[in-house]
TrEMBL record, chain A:
Keyword NAD attached: no
Segment forming the signal sequence: 1-23
Gene3D superfamilies given in the database record: Periplasmic binding protein-like II (3.40.190.10)
Keyword line: Signal, Sugar transport, Transport
One Pfam match: SBP_bac_1
Name of this protein: Multiple sugar transport system substrate-binding protein
The keyword Transport appears for this protein: yes
PANTHER family attached to this UniProt entry: ARABINOSE-BINDING PROTEIN-RELATED, DIACETYLCHITOBIOSE BINDING PROTEIN DASA
InterPro entries: Bact_solute-bd_prot1, SBP, TAT_signal
TrEMBL record, chain B:
Stated name of the protein: Multiple sugar transport system permease protein
Keyword terms of this UniProt record: Cell membrane, Membrane, Sugar transport, Transmembrane, Transmembrane helix, Transport
Major localization class: membrane
Short name of any one Pfam family annotated for the protein: BPD_transp_1
Localization per Swiss-Prot or TrEMBL: Cell membrane
Residue ranges of every copy of the ABC transmembrane type-1 domain listed in the record: 90-284
Family from the record: Belongs to the binding-protein-dependent transport system permease family.
PROSITE patterns on file: ABC_TM1
Native source organism of the sequence: Kribbella aluminosa
Length: 437, 298
């Protein structure tokens, strides 16, 4: 190698080292020179840039910096690392779990003082999801409305009435089965159907008694939900198509072999985009109810925009979060050109201005106009008594295992509840948490 | 293959004289080879076929055969989606890959050369440490690395990806083994006698004789860096700094909780992201060829 190029190599190596050094210095000086508007870092895996831009344009004293994350799991890992390292902690993070469990992990800061005065701006059902024992550890975001879509062409073809109660679903399943059609799908990895049924019944597995957690997996609400699922599974009325293999799932839904699908607004566009044969055959209907239920109810367990521990500007972070979830400006800014829809304003008392855009044009064919009433009714009737304990992350993993066994008839749903009761109580005790007997 | 034409080389010609494999063993070997070929080629075939489909056909048509042709639409969408963020990811990956791998090659080749050519105290221990470090799974070092980089203030900067890539125990080992075979100590001795300093000896003689080895180290390092996922995932925040693998991963995950499904873009993106690696492989072939001839001339 000639002398000059040898120097070049040495110089380049040196320059790299120096640049690494200066990069390290510059990030230091950025922090100390923080004057002017307070900067709030916001982590989310969805595209929140337009919302952030709108906020920054209308609020001169706070500047939100959106840092896009890859997806849910990595956001969680990133936050855990940042909180453990005690530096680079963001002030707002898109929700990736239940608030009590995240609080027990030491990830969240208390923001009661800033959220409590703004409670009236939220729909009441959205509030419990951001609380633990009456204190706020995040900004309520609410949940999407739950309703059902049925393949009306299939129901009509076999002369089966569209179900109004869960008992009707079982009856419809029995009528459809001889034709090779399954009434619903219960994915082997996703126990949310069980959880949603219990929330709909107004039940909860955890509750607080004085200073102890009370665990009750065998409450009347849980048993009622388990009974419905047991009948569906025992009579072979449901499929166990996994969500992991999306092409197979979509093709299966599209074929007309599965007639009803509890769903929410955010999934509709995707179905319209991917269904080939069944577009236009579907009909939006009310979520089936428990026979003899006192009032119409849909499960509406809300989430929270998380405010992590270590955030230096709790007041400003809360202000940003409340604005994002309760103002028309913020919801309008979520408009997605690709799908022509807005993020569902789950925390807003009146979501009606955004309902129409949430319904795709062709999926429901001539029955599209019915969707607005169905969605608004679901949204108004949301109930949330659901409280999760501090060990829910581990409990949920166990629940997934038990669920997979129950839907494949290895155990009964009653056994699932009994096993979960024991597992949860043992786990809480092992963690040194008070359990009320 | 026809065996009746006498002018053509027969399969048996390559075997030792008097060796006639049985029909059964031949069939087994051929079946094995064909199965292996299918196994290796079908994912690429699937990728090529899928890249030409639109989103709906991707899910509803036969995975191994063509439907309507939408390749150009898909490519246009890939390069324009989200203000062309994909190009930015490609650029980032190229930058991290080239800077990191060039640095790594220089450091590791020099290190391997030194270990092979010089006798110094602690050499055996050092070599032992290098080999022992193969045994430590990279994932185990994530948390300590994260805390270390936080102290160094390089988390969320490209340096968190580039600097760790400079140091590769396996490349040092490879360079050492290669240097032992490729650099004759007599040549080094002769250069010293002629008055060359150690740096000059390394750059003008050692490094040149190690070209093929260095090329291998560079290529393996570059491919590793191109596909690296875990580092960027943990240390980089914000899509402007992401690598192409991380970006495609985030697109693939969009469908899980949003209504818009980007699987089609992920597939076209995967093909496009293969191009630099394939180009590099083709461009660097001559180094191996020259390396092999070098050996035969000696």
């Amino acid at each position: 190698m000639p002398r000059t190029s040898r120097r070049a190599v040495l110089a380049a190596t040196l320059a790299l080292g120096l640049a690494a050094g200066t990069a390290a210095c510059s990030s230091d000086s950025d922090k100390s020179s923080a004057s002017g508007p307070v900067e709030i870092e916001y982590w989310a895996w969805g595209d929140a840039q337009p919302v952030v831009d709108k906020f920054n344009a209308t609020h001169p004293d706070i500047k939100v910096k959106f840092v896009k994350q890859a997806e849910l799991t990595t956001t969680a890992t990133g936050l855990r690392n940042a909180v453990a390292a005690g530096s680079g902690v963001p002030c707002l993070v898109q929700n990736f779990g239940d608030v009590p469990a995240l609080l027990a992990e030491g990830l969240l800061a208390e923001v009661t003082d800033y959220v409590k005065p703004a409670e009236s701006k939220f729909v009441p059902a959205a509030l419990p999801g951001a609380q633990v024992q009456g204190k706020y550890y995040g900004i309520p975001t609410g949940s999407g409305p739950t309703f059902m879509m049925v393949n009306r062409a299939v129901y009509d073809k076999y002369g089966v009435p569209v179900p109004k109660t869960w008992d009707d679903v079982i009856t419809a399943g029995k009528a459809l089965k001889p034709h090779g059609v399954q009434v619903m799908n219960l994915a082997g990895e996703d126990p949310s159907t069980l959880v949603n049924l219990i929330i709909q019944a107004g039940g909860s597995w955890y509750s607080v008694q004085k200073d102890a957690w009370k665990v009750d997996f065998l409450s009347p609400e849980s048993v009622a939900a388990a009974n419905i699922l047991q009948q569906l599974v025992d009579n072979n009325l449901v499929a166990n198509q996994t969500y992991q293999d999306r092409p197979a799932l979509i093709a299966y839904f599209d074929q007309g072999k599965m007639a009803s699908l509890p769903t929410s607004t955010w999934q509709l566009t995707n179905y319209e985009l991917n269904f080939k044969k069944s577009v236009g055959n579907w009909e939006p209907v009310d979520l089936p109810q428990y026979a003899g239920a006192a009032k119409f109810a849909t499960p509406a367990h809300g989430g929270a925009l998380l405010v992590p521990k270590g955030c230096a500007h709790l007041k400003e972070a809360s202000e940003v979060g409340i604005w994002m979830n309760t103002t028309k400006d913020a919801v309008d800014a979520t408009f997605d050109k690709a799908t022509g829809s807005y993020a569902w304003p789950g925390a807003m008392p009146d979501p009606s201005p955004w309902v129409d855009s949430a319904v795709p044009q062709k999926l429901f064919g001539s029955r599209r106009p019915e969707a607005k009433a169905v969605i608004l009714k679901a949204s108004r009737s949301g109930v949330d008594n659901w409280l999760v304990g501090p060990n829910y992350t581990g409990v949920f993993k166990e629940l997934q295992d038990q669920w997979a066994q129950a839907v494949t008839k290895k155990i009964t749903f009653r056994q699932l509840l009994e096993n979960m009761q024991k597992f949860t109580v043992d786990d809480l005790k092992a963690k040194g948490i008070n359990v009320a007997s | 293959m026809s065996t009746t034409t006498p002018a053509r080389r027969r399969y048996d010609d390559d075997l030792p004289a008097g060796h006639h494999p049985s029909k059964l063993s031949r069939t087994l070997v051929w079946t094995g080879l064909v199965l292996f070929l299918i196994y290796s080629v079908s994912p690429i075939w699937f990728l090529i076929v899928s890249a030409t489909k639109n989103q709906r056909d991707l899910y509803t048509s036969n995975g191994l055969w063509f439907a309507d042709f939408h390749l150009f639409d898909n490519a246009r969408q890939l390069f324009t989606y989200h203000n062309g963020i994909f190009l930015r990811w490609m650029g980032n990956t190229l930058l991290y890959g080239v800077v990191g791998t060039v640095g790594m090659t220089v450091i590791c080749v020099a290190c391997g050369y030194a270990l092979a050519m010089y006798r110094f105290r602690g050499r055996g221990v050092l070599m032992g440490c290098i080999i022992a470090s193969f045994l430590i799974p990279g994932a185990l070092l994530t948390i300590p690395s994260f805390l270390l980089y936080t102290r160094l203030h390089i988390v969320d900067t490209p340096w968190a990806i580039i600097v760790p890539h400079f140091f590769s125990a396996f490349s040092v080992y490879l360079a050492k083994v290669y240097a032992e075979g490729a650099v004759p100590p007599e040549l080094i001795e002769a250069a010293r006698v002629d008055g060359a300093g150690e740096y000059r000896v390394f750059f003008t003689i050692g490094a040149r004789l190690m070209t093929t080895g260095s090329a291998t180290i560079f290529l393996l390092g570059f491919v590793g860096s191109w596909n690296s996922f875990f580092g960027p995932l943990v240390f980089l925040r914000g899509e402007q700094k992401w690598t192409v693998m991380l970006g495609l991963y985030s697109w693939l995950n969009v469908k899980v909780d949003q209504s818009y499904d980007l699987t089609g873009l992920v597939i076209v993106g995967s093909i496009v992201s293969l191009i630099p690696i394939v180009a590099l492989m083709l461009a660097m072939q001559r180094y191996w060829r020259s390396g092999i001839t070098l050996g035969s001339l000696k």
